[in-house]
Design goal:
24% strand; 4-stranded antiparallel beta sheet; membrane; 252 residues; transmembrane helix; alpha+beta; 6-stranded mixed beta sheet; Immunoglobulin-like; MSP_dom; VAP; elongated
Length: 252
């Protein structure tokens, strides 16, 4: 997984349509910066824009490594911004300034939902003219790609409220996904009690249905036996009434 750096306090998820900015932690703090980071971004949290026209902001990309680094910039709202340059090559110790212009017909989204993703890789034997073609062949989520994410806000706007959820640790090179937090013991016990209660209730319901079925069968048998008894009595009565007639015939 790529190493990812996030704006401090940002807790807004990236829209699903920006595939290159998914599957990464929600938040990152500058305190967690690694000593082997290739780029240092200034500012490293929020890109602030003035209200009005023109509305633009500057980013400083400083190569802190000992080798040339190539960078590429993407945004969740490409229709809103004009970025110059979008990609380039930075020699060791040098700094590149990136100009980001918010187009006059657009405005920033609420809650810092407009974001920028800055990716960088070691530049091995490539020139500035080859940077664009170089990035076309790269996997943006490759294991060697260093990523930095920044949120966009207006200068006079309050900073977004930090999420109340626990902060997610940044993903490092070659590291797997963090294991999910285990549920609290009290919640587990409550679920177990609810499961046992449900099982007992099912057993009681089954017993009640069996008893009800037995009672219905018993009543049906009584009804059938009663009908059979009445039929037997009727036959016996008919036989007894017909006997004198037969005797009278014999007497005649």
């Amino acid at each position: 997984m790529p190493r990812v750096h996030f704006a401090n306090g940002s807790s807004i998820r990236v829209p699903a349509e920006s595939a290159q900015m998914t599957d990464v932690p929600e938040r990152y703090t500058p305190e967690e910066l690694q000593s082997d980071d290739m780029l240092r971004i200034v500012p490293n949290d929020y890109i602030q824009f003035p209200r009005g026209d023109p509305s633009e902001s500057l980013l400083q990309l400083n190569n802190t490594s000992k080798q040339p680094v190539t960078f590429k910039i993407q945004t969740t709202s490409p229709e809103k911004f004009r970025v110059r340059p979008r990609c380039g090559l930075i020699n060791p110790g040098e700094t590149t300034t990136v100009n980001i212009l918010l187009k006059a017909e657009h405005s920033l989204s609420d809650n810092a939902r407009d974001k920028f993703l800055i990716m960088c890789l070691p530049a091995r034997e490539i020139s500035n003219a080859q940077v664009g073609e170089f990035w076309k062949k790269q996997n943006n989520n490759g294991p060697n790609v260093e990523q930095h994410r920044l949120c966009c806000i207006y200068k006079d706007a309050p900073l977004p409220t930090p999420s109340s959820q626990p902060m997610t640790t940044a993903i490092q090179k070659g590291a797997g996904e963090a294991s999910p937090r285990s549920a609290p013991a009290s919640s587990t016990c409550a679920l177990e009690r609810q499961l046992r209660f449900t099982q007992v209730l099912q057993v009681i319901t089954l017993i009640f249905l069996l008893m009800l079925s037995g009672a219905v069968i018993y009543l049906l048998m009584l009804q059938l036996c009663g009908d059979a008894g009445c039929f037997s009595r009727d036959v016996a009565s008919d036989t007894s009434e017909g006997a004198p007639c037969g005797k009278a015939k014999r007497d005649l």
